[in-house]
Amino acid sequence: MRSEDVHSWTRRDFTKGLAAAGAGVFAGSRTFESAAAESKRLLLGIDNFAVRAMGWKGAELIDYAAGLDVDSLFITDLEALESFEEKPLGELKQMAADKGLRIYLGSWSICPTSVTFKDKWGTAEEHLALGIRVAGALGSPVFRVILGSGKDRLTEGGIEARIEDTVQVLKASRNLAVDSGVKIAVENHAGDMHSSELAGLIEAAGSDFVGANMDSGNAVWTLEDPLDNLEILGPHVLTTSLRDTAIWKSENGVTAQWTAMGEGDVDWEKYFQRFAELCPEAPVHIETISGFNRELAVGQGDFWKAWPGGKPGGYERFLEWASRGSAREARQRPEGVDPKTADREYQRGELERSIAYCKSIGLGRR
């Protein structure tokens, strides 16, 4: 779907879209407030990586998420859990439930040949088995994993070989995942896979137990308009890690800066209207990682070594989207402030403004 072909949606139209996704047809002329009250809103939550500088563990994260009045908490790092034993995990699950939250769980690479893979949790298969067990104990319907990063596109065999290796690990864990009722959500992470490549991985591994953790910011690093990324991954989405992006043409190609929701160049009302049609029960988890600029040097020949098959699908629409943006300065830490304190305040501000924005356009069921 071309981003420019999506109609312009008002807040009232956006809420109509949410209602249509959940109930078939939205009829009549109603106010935004009355329509929102009657529609089945999208779930809204936070990804703990957004406030990584806080160093919070499970119980602290639950308290923080509850204070934001969201529906779910996505803990995307096993190190945020102080124990993998059944009793303390069950206590965290109950604590979250008592505060109206559902926990989603994730970790990192399960591709044994990725440049990002670490054996801290054992082999790739052992890492995945641990995550499935802990997710089940926490009541998480998914366990988020990644393949790696954009650097894997330049390894021997390219990204295709790394995808094949990841598929083998997933297939070896199928029975464990199915028996536990926990699905595996593979993320498009740090420029590793284009949405079409991740969709292919999911189908090859088995879409009955593998789906996507869709990351709108990472889509930009694989030369995609987030709306196009959504169109391809939407049918596979189990959960999400979303943020806004400012984008513009620059000296060597295109530069992107991730931002708080509503402060970049993504049209979120268009995005969530389509989201509600494709994956209405997937939670919208906000993962702000703001403040720095990254240039995608598409104007230089060396850049395309990572793309031996040529420009990916949707590339021209990506460039057209970038052509409408304006350059922004990267964040500078304030002088005279402790860096750790500054980062904590900055990260909380980015996330909390994002949650407020999402609620203002009709997201969240609380």
Quick overview:
Helices cover 40% and strands 15% of the residues. It is an alpha/beta fold and 366 residues long.
DSSP strand content: 15-25%
Which percent bin holds the helix content?
40-55%
**Total DSSP helices:** 13
What is the C-alpha radius of gyration, as a whole number of Å? 20 Å
Q: Give a quick account of the main beta sheet: strands, pairing sense, barrel closure.
A: 8 strands, parallel
Under the CATH scheme, which class?
A: Alpha Beta
* CATH second-level architecture: Alpha-Beta Barrel
Give the number of domains. 1
The CATH topology turns out to be TIM Barrel
Termini gap: 32 Å
Name the average pLDDT: 91
What's the CATH H-level superfamily name? Answer: Divalent-metal-dependent TIM barrel enzymes
How many beta-strand segments? 11
Cross-sheet strand order for the largest sheet: 7-6-5-4-3-2-1-10
Helix/strand/pairing category: alpha/beta
Global outline? globular
Low-pLDDT windows of residues: 1-38
Instruction: Give the ordered list of helices and strands.
Output: HHEHEHEHEHHEHEHHEEEHEEHH
